């Protein structure tokens, strides 16, 4: 069944889904809405928001539901309940960081960027670094030797934070190495090369 992912032209909440689909080589239509087109689409969306994944006549919204659905389809959800619940917990922890990032970007960039980089970010990254050591001493993926949907979210989260603060991972070596390794996965590398040609904005207000 042909897949279509509707999201804005930015990276935002759509990008981890695009990364997962690209890495698993799942063909999909990458439908990137412009802000001008949005008023026409918004009323058609279940919660008035994107991302939206369409498969045949089935529509799925809510980024976590989309990621978990794709995770189940492509073996990216852990191999037992212990791993799956850990993956979900790790994902929610990343999402909490992302919400703080988004609040700073959209509501308080000029005054909030510096304290965010100095205080909030190191605290949040240190928590993730510690948790990342749970499996395989933090040398592989979130839940050990197999990748999960949370790895795509983690990679994108680290990637956008490196744009905000290029040295932000210096104090979290396992996360830094994970980011480097993940960027070298052949399908991810090829997607990142193609993306570089478009160079999409990270966020809708142009701040990053
Ligand atoms: N809980 C939703 C949030 C989705 C969301 O906030 N989408 C934003 C873009 S990142 C959106 O559609 N904004 C346009 C609007 O609300 O009109 C999810 O995780 O998918």
UniProtKB/TrEMBL annotation:
Domain GST C-terminal: 80-201
The enzyme's E.C. designation: 2.5.1.18
Catalytic function, reaction form: RX + glutathione = an S-substituted glutathione + a halide anion + H(+)
Molecular-function annotations in GO: glutathione transferase activity
Gene Ontology CC: cytosol
SUPFAM superfamilies associated with the record: GST C-terminal domain-like, Thioredoxin-like
Keywords: Transferase
Keyword Transferase belongs to the record: yes
Every GST N-terminal domain range: 1-78
BP GO annotations: glutathione metabolic process; response to stress
Keyword Transferase: yes
Pfam annotation, one family: GST_C_3
Family, per entry: Belongs to the GST superfamily. Pi family.
PANTHER family: GLUTATHIONE S-TRANSFERASE
Purpose: Conjugation of reduced glutathione to a wide number of exogenous and endogenous hydrophobic electrophiles.
Subunit structure: Homodimer.
Name assigned to this protein: Glutathione S-transferase
Annotated organism of origin: Caenorhabditis japonica
Lineage: Eukaryota, Metazoa, Ecdysozoa, Nematoda, Chromadorea
């Amino acid at each position: 069944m042909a897949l279509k992912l509707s999201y804005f032209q930015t990276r935002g909440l759509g990008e981890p889904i695009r990364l997962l689909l690209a890495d698993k080589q799942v063909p999909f239509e990458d439908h990137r809405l412009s802000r001008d087109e949005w008023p026409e689409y918004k009323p058609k969306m279940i919660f008035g928001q994107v991302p939206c994944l369409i498969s045949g006549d089935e529509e799925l919204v809510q980024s976590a539901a989309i990621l978990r659905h794709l995770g189940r389809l492509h073996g990216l959800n852990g191999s037992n309940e212990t791993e799956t619940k850990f993956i979900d917990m790790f994902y929610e922890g990343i999402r909490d960081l992302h919400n703080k990032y988004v609040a700073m970007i959209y509501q308080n960039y000029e005054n909030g960027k510096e304290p965010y980089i100095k205080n909030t970010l190191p605290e949040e990254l240190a928590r993730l670094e510690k948790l990342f050591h749970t499996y395989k001493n933090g040398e592989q993926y979130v839940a050990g030797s197999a990748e999960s949907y949370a790895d795509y979210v983690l990679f994108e989260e680290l990637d956008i934070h490196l744009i905000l603060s290029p040295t932000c991972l210096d104090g979290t070596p396992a996360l830094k190495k994970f980011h480097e390794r993940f960027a070298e996965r052949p399908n991810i590398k090829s997607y990142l090369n193609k993306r570089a040609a478009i160079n999409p904005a990270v966020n809708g207000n142009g701040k990053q």
